[in-house]
Amino acid sequence: MRVLGIDPGIAIVGFGFVDKQGHKLVPVQYGCIQTKANTDQAVRLQEVYDSMLQLIDTYKPDALAIEKLFFNKNVTTAFTVSEARGVIQLAAVQRGLTIAEYTPLQVKQAIVGYGNAEKKQVQEMVKLFLKLAAVPKPDDVADALAIAICHAHSAVLQHKLNGVSKP
Q1: Residue 160 has what pLDDT?
Q2: In a domain, 91, yes or no
Q3: Residue 39, domain member (yes or no)
Q4: How many domains does the chain have?
Q5: Has residue 34 been placed in a domain?
Q6: Does residue 167 form part of some domain?
Q7: Residue 97 φ then ψ, to 5°
Q8: For residues 79 and 136, what is the distance between their CA atoms, to the nearest angstrom?
Q9: Known catalytic residue: 140?
Q10: Does the pLDDT value for residue 158 go beyond 90?
């Protein structure tokens, strides 16, 4: 099973492809999509959308896992991130992918085992799970990989609960 994890944003979209091979997690590709700050919002969304289609077509994931949006103090940022999530999900649906959403709490619990874990703890566990030489940068990339790992673990658990032996 290949999972595409996404940490959505408008300036930076973190992405990470992870293969679940038996009990192993194998990183396939990871990085970020970046858009320029002084560019029209619609153009930035088009860039995110086009980049997502290209990534999906190149790496052919089985599922997309994306962070659920939670509102913080900056409502304007929440709206732009929500728009980016929309074009990311549209690209995934158009390519026939299933979509799973996880809250930051769910991701922390899946990766560290503790919902109030610090960002650094999550990053170190991503490095450990994927046997990486260093924590991926920027933080959005490590977050995307954490979301992919969370889904890989959740999908296996879900299959076991449903009586299916393999994902």
Answers
A1: 41
A2: yes
A3: yes
A4: 1
A5: yes
A6: no
A7: -85, 145
A8: 27
A9: yes
A10: no
Tokens encoding 90:
């549209």
Is position 139 annotated as part of the catalytic site? Answer: no
Return the closest-CA partner of residue 15 out of 1, 27, 24.
Answer: 27
DSSP 9: -
Q: Is there a contact between 1 and 141 (Cβ–Cβ < 8 Å)?
A: no
39 DSSP 8-state letter: S
Could you tell me where the beta strands, DSSP code E, fall in 22-109? 24-34, 63-67, 98-102
- Report d(CA 114, CA 7) in Å as an integer: 20
* CATH number of the domain bearing residue 100: 3.30.420.10
Q: Taking the CA of residue 72 as centre, how many other CA atoms within 13 Å lie in the half-sphere pointing to its CB?
A: 9
Alpha carbons 72 and 82: distance in angstroms, whole number = 12
Question: What is the domain range of residue 66?
Answer: 2-161
pLDDT score recorded for residue 76 = 66
Query: Is 62 an active-site residue?
Result: no
- Pick the catalytic residue from 40, 57, 62, 67: 67
- Mean pLDDT for the stretch of residues 125-147: 97
What is the per-residue pLDDT for 74?
Answer: 64
Catalytic, out of 7, 40, 83, 143: 7
Q: Which two tokens stand for residue 164?
A: 């299916």
> What gap in Å lies between CA 110 and CA 113, rounded to an integer?
6
